[in-house]
């Protein structure tokens, strides 16, 4: 405070505490990037592809940070010293950074520390959650992970889930990695059924090599009745030996009789794509290079699939082999997977 004025001055130590507060509220590995100076006191932003803080949120955060910093000055000391009327008995010969001792100071400092801690926790909570732009890469990659997860639960040759739209997405750092909260709509691409879903995806930290953890429920997908088509396909190929290549072909064409095996390949590919997904990948199946039916075992149709995955960030085409089983009552299972050497000359096939 300026003496007798009742106005708050932003001292050099206050600005120092602001910088210190920002540094301690972010993980050590993050870099800071200043937003335009028009934002009060230069609020900083962790650089992501969609770092979008609402203006109101920024203003609230700024106010809270200023209050915390003011209290930190009370606790830690400041070059700006308040002299009030009747304080002539205060010893001003002490070090210039010291706060004069006055009656009741101990209680004020203790209360200031408690309020500062509470406000600091509030600021950290606000800063921890980032609202993402739905159409941008961070939100899309998490939403596609949900799509792959749903295929592993509900997929069949006649039920193949695709992502339709991301309505909203938020991310936050958690102890186990980074968590995404999503509001999306998915589409069952054969019946054209659409459903709104809420989902949560947790990508593990870089040091952990495991699949993302997904929590989502879209039970309306189970209401799509595919029993008749699945039973007919199962009976047709129960004693057959299917073998075909290039779904789709170089012109983007898939024969109608082969579409169930293209769709089955897409569902099975979701098992691989879910397991391989990270915060830096975005997968889609580009082609079934080959599918060969094996002997039926335990009433399950068995297939060897050779698929091409398109990793859309690096633009790589990645070859995988899978041993896939399917029966109408048991659903799709992927028993074995093998990644083949990368093909740098491969071209993404033309899609329908």
Give a quick precis of the structure.
The chain is of the alpha+beta class and 352 residues long. Helices cover 30% and strands 29% of the residues. Strand 6 and strand 7 form a beta hairpin.
What do you see in this structure?
- It is built from six helices and twelve strands.
- The protein has two domains: 12-80 and 101-129, no CATH class; 137-339, Nuclear Transport Factor 2, Chain: A (Roll).
- It has 352 residues and is of the alpha+beta class.
- 30% of the residues lie in helices and 29% in strands.
- Helix 1 (12-24) crosses helix 2, helix 2 runs antiparallel to helix 3 and helix 4 packs across helix 6 (259-276).
- It has helices at residues 12-24, 55-76, 105-128, 137-154, 227-237, 259-276, and strands at residues 33-34, 44-45, 129-132, 161-174, 177-188, 193-204, 213-216, 243-247, 283-297, 300-311, 316-327, 331-339.
- The protein has a five-stranded antiparallel beta sheet with strand order 3-4-5-6-7. It has a five-stranded antiparallel beta sheet with strand order 8-9-10-11-12.
- The radius of gyration is 30 Å and the shape is globular.
